[in-house]
Design brief:
The complex is a heterodimer of chains A (176) and B (409).
Chain A: H1 3-14, E1 17-22, H2 28-37, E2 49-51, E3 59-63, H3 71-80, E4 86-90, H4 92-96, E5 118-120, H5 127-145, H6 149-152, E6 172-173
Parallel strand pairs in A: 1-2, 1-3, 3-4, 4-5
Antiparallel strand pairs in A: 5-6
Chain B: E1 13-18, E2 30-36, E3 39-46, H1 54-59, H2 63-71, H3 78-93, H4 99-127, H5 131-152, E4 161-162, E5 165-166, H6 175-198, H7 200-206, H8 214-219, H9 224-228, H10 236-239, H11 245-250, H12 264-287, E6 305-313, E7 316-324, E8 330-336, H13 338-350, H14 358-364, E9 375-379, E10 384-387, H15 390-403
Antiparallel strand pairs in B: 1-2, 2-3, 3-9, 4-5, 6-7, 7-8, 9-10
Helix pairs in contact in B: 2-3, 3-4, 4-5, 4-12, 4-14, 5-6, 6-12
Chain lengths: 176, 409
């Protein structure tokens, strides 16, 4: 791996830009994503930045069961993202369809339309859970890019213990 | 360029599609704005990306299951959908719920209003580019989120209501904590009220923008803060109170918040002052909460009935129309969310404004697409609005899909 490539990979793990797409959700997950980026938890200290365009983003945060009307748009926006790209399904609806499973206009889960890297369940997941999910994804990214997590920042050495208030947080990272 | 002949320059009409994914919009909705130079001459609203078929799904669920399904219509005003459906089923079953349950239900509604209005204020600050205040408001919103979490156990979907009462009690030891939180919120909201009114960064962007005259607001059937910002006195809490709003309004301490400015500034002031009023209402509810049971047992099979339940959601009047048929499932449930009533007036307010003001005008009605998934087409030429009925839509959709096959089958 050349020096430039190593530098790029390090930069990608250090500062993943996320992009938020509402694929028919109820807004609950959306406001919790914003709350995770806001002063109390401040995901931006990990270098995670919310951007407005899919072309700038490395990670797409999808919320909501995919409705029939939004499916082609979702696929188009996924195609617009530059490689390497990752998709995180935030919330029970995005993971499996949740409470809307079985409705006539709902596909049930983002993975029915586009490949998903990580799932964060919860209705809606608390900002702490979203932070933890983002942290787990960054660790997996570091592994894939061949970057030592400890090289990146001191906060990557010890996983931040989820606070007891968040209940059980199960963040699964699927194999790509 | 010495010609004395007067030259008439007609700026070209440009059609700008906004959405369904757009940085200014948190939710998928599509607007086709036709502009001449910088002025908006036509606005076409195309929503429905969020249509999930909740009403149809609700017909196959029991009433208890529907409480949780309808709460998930909208994440920002989930307490209103949840509570209003519980209210509708109780009206249909003709049962009276305990006094304490009424107070707790109303308390959750008012806390939800505080959280929704602070959220709106943050979004409004963000839309005019005042991000410092955006961060401040969202930090202070965490106070009310913590209060809701301590009462209901969840930050966003509270699901406090059940048919015949509420699911959780507000313990006595929690009340002082809630009152302290309300004090802190009141202090911060007074600061934001001053920011909204005296801070030029915000005021100059909203004053005189997006005018909605009183008669137009009445004619187009605007509801909620959009109507009250145009001096139309509609507020279900005052006009047709239910639950604990009845004793609260009997005290005479509360008055409807109105503004005669008719612009975005008027709507902002109405929302901020209403938040302060909601804090007072929460304090009144906590101090006057009676003792007693919190729920009444209601038989799951609801007698055949047809009811209309109204409630003042943060965005305006929310209507649930429910037909029951003697089983434990509804025959028909129809939701009319406040945003749907405000679309019509919004097309009027957009017209004639600068393109740069479009985000704040769109935000000023506090649109909630997940509540509202229908199609409204507005034509600037003859000032008509077409609410497309379902069968016409189906014909158009079939025609469209014939030209654009979606799946390979």
């Amino acid at each position: 791996m050349g020096f430039l490539k190593r530098l790029f990979n390090k930069a990608k793990v250090k500062s993943p830009w996320v992009f938020h797409f509402n694929s028919g959700s109820c807004n609950g997950c959306d406001i919790e994503i914003i709350a995770a980026l806001m002063p109390r938890l401040d995901l931006e200290r990990f270098g995670v930045k919310l951007v407005g365009s899919p072309r700038h983003a490395d990670i797409m945060l999808c919320t909501g069961p995919v409705t029939e009307q939004i499916k082609p748009r979702l696929q188009r926006i996924y195609e617009q993202m530059a490689e390497p790209k990752y998709v995180v399904a935030v919330g029970s609806c995005a993971c499996s369809g949740g409470v809307f499973r079985g409705a006539y206009n709902v596909l049930g889960g983002v993975d029915q339309a586009i490949p998903v890297t990580a799932y964060i369940p919860g209705c809606p997941p608390k900002p702490a859970a979203i932070t933890y999910g983002a942290y787990q994804l960054l660790r997996v990214l570091a592994d894939m890019m061949g970057v030592e997590p400890a090289q990146l920042a001191p906060e990557f050495e010890e996983p931040a213990p989820p606070s007891p208030e968040c209940g059980t947080i199960e963040t699964e990272v699927a194999e790509i | 360029m010495t010609s004395t002949e007067k030259r008439v320059v007609i700026p070209p009409r440009v059609s700008i599609p906004i959405g369904p994914q757009h940085p200014a919009l948190k939710e998928p909705g599509m607007f086709k704005l036709t502009i001449e130079g910088e002025y908006i001459v036509d606005a076409e609203v195309n929503i429905g990306y969020n249509h999930r078929g909740v009403e149809k799904l609700a017909e196959s669920n029991t009433h208890i299951q529907n409480l949780y399904l309808l709460a998930r219509i909208c994440g920002i005003c989930s307490a209103t959908h949840n509570g209003n459906y519980a209210q509708a089923v109780e009206f249909a079953a003709e049962v009276e719920i305990p006094e304490r349950a009424k107070y707790i239900r109303t308390l959750i509604w008012e806390l939800d209003r505080i959280h929704s209005h602070i959220l709106w204020l943050g979004v409004a600050f963000h839309e005019v580019g005042f991000d410092t205040a955006f961060m401040y408001t969202w930090r202070d919103r965490e106070v009310v989120m913590d209060m809701l979490e301590s009462i209901s156990g969840n930050r966003v979907h509270h699901d406090m209501n059940t048919v015949g009462g509420v699911r959780r009690n507000v313990p006595d030891e929690l009340v002082p904590r809630l009152l302290r939180g309300l004090d802190r919120l009141e202090e911060r909201m007074k600061y934001y009220r001053d920011v909204v009114i005296y801070e030029k960064t915000f005021w100059d962007r909203v004053a005189g923008v997006g005018i909605l005259e009183t008669d137009v607001a009445k004619r187009t059937g605007a509801v909620g803060p959009t109507a009250r910002g145009s001096n139309v006195p509609v507020d279900v809490r005052f006009n047709d109170p239910t639950q604990a709003y009845i004793p609260m309004m009997d005290t005479g301490d509360f008055e409807m918040v109105l503004s005669d400015r008719c612009d975005v500034a008027g709507r902002s002031v109405v929302r901020v002052v209403e938040t302060l009023q909601a804090i007072d209402m929460c304090r009144w509810l906590l101090q006057n909460m009676p003792d007693g049971p919190i729920r009444e047992r209601v038989r799951p099979r609801i007698q055949p009935n047809e009811v209309l339940a109204r409630h003042e959601a943060p965005r305006g009047e929310l209507i649930h129309y429910l037909v029951t048929n003697g089983t434990d499932k509804p025959e028909r449930i129809k939701v009319r969310a406040p945003t749907h009533a405000n679309w019509v007036s919004m097309a009027h307010t957009l017209r004639g404004n600068y393109l740069a003001d479009a985000p704040i005008i769109l935000a000023a009605i506090d649109p909630c697409y997940s509540c509202t998934d229908r199609v409204v087409i507005v034509d600037a030429e003859d000032d008509t609005m077409e609410l497309v009925p379902l069968d016409v839509m189906r014909v158009r959709a079939n025609k469209w899909y014939k030209m654009h096959p979606r799946r390979e089958e």
